[in-house]
Backbone:
């Protein structure tokens, strides 16, 4: 729905003519002519119905004048639409740890749910950037390739859960998967946001399918990809899921020490030109994403389109209708004897 406005609103001041006309009419109303007659019986019927309606002619004239003035002020409905584009966009891959430990409840309601909420808000507020999503634990999978369709991205973020992939923490594999999707990007800036709450648990030395975090970081440097790393978890102890109740199947939580390989995450960030952050609660996690958002700004060009629907023709038409109606009534039903 557009906005109603006037192109020449100052012309509406001429509407003040209407009360002036009314004042002049009242002031200059001619007194009724008087004459002496022997009896008033012939006029005992009072005023006729038509004589009571005669002021309607004056009202029609005033309405017509008002409509003409409004038409001159050019009433219009303005609809504004806009498109946002960027010549210097950022390609971002969010790499999310979905291992079982992400259900730890040192963040509320747990680490994974807290992360999903913050990641969703981050994505929504970067409409011109291509953003993708990689989930990893003991293996990695690209959930969403680089896209500007953030509805699809947000939907996949909301559906992140533990247990879909082989258990473990393959930080190197998650990072390498993201690099593989970013390496051919032509964007001005290529970014990985790597989130984990643990320690690399894959013996990549004895399995050719895996790549070490250090080797992945070196590839990122070669491909000019910056990596921001985030360690999620409080300091000290936290309630971790350790087993399921035999009868209900619900997770049972026990207090265990929080272990995050901060030196490794700091190394990855330092080597690639990024930064390392530690999120110990929901608020700090949210602030980290805001800080990354400020660090990786995109130059946005917003183009606005204005669509004008002119209404002066309608007001002019109705003004003419009221004017002609007044003239017709004056020359017919209310015709005065001369």
Residues:
């Amino acid at each position: 729905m557009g906005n109603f406005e006037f192109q020449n609103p100052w012309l509406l001041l001429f509407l003040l003519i209407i009360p002036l006309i009314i004042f002049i009419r009242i002031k200059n109303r001619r007194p009724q002519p008087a004459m002496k007659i022997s009896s008033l019986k012939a006029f005992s019927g009072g005023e006729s119905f038509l004589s009571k309606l005669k002021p309607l002619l004056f009202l029609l004239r005033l309405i017509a004048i008002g409509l003409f003035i409004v038409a001159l002020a050019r009433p219009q409905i303005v609809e504004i639409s806009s498109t946002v584009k960027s010549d210097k966009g950022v390609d971002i891959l969010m790499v999310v740890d979905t291992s079982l430990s992400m259900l730890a409840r040192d963040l509320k309601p747990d680490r994974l749910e807290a992360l999903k909420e913050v990641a969703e808000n981050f994505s929504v507020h970067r409409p011109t950037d291509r953003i993708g999503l990689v989930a990893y634990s003991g293996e990695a999978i690209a959930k969403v390739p680089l896209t500007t369709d953030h509805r699809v991205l947000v939907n996949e973020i909301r559906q992140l859960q533990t247990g879909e992939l082989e258990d473990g923490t393959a930080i190197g594999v998650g990072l390498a998967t993201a690099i593989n999707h970013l390496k051919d990007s032509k964007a001005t800036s290529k970014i990985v946001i790597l989130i984990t709450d643990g320690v690399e648990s894959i013996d990549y030395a004895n399995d050719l399918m895996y790549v070490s975090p250090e080797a992945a970081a070196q590839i990122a440097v070669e491909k000019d990809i910056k990596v921001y790393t985030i360690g999620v978890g409080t300091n000290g102890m936290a309630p971790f899921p350790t087993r399921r109740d035999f009868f209900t199947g619900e997770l049972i939580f026990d207090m265990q020490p929080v272990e995050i390989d901060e030196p490794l995450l700091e190394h990855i960030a330092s080597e690639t030109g990024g930064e390392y952050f530690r999120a110990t609660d929901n608020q700090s996690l949210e602030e980290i994403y805001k800080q990354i958002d400020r660090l990786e700004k995109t130059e946005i060009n917003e183009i606005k389109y204005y669509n004008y629907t002119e209404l002066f023709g309608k007001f002019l038409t109705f003004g003419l209708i009221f004017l002609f109606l007044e003239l017709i009534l004056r020359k017919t039903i209310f015709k005065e004897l001369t």
Remarks:
- The chain has two domains: 1-11+52-82+304-337, 90-296.
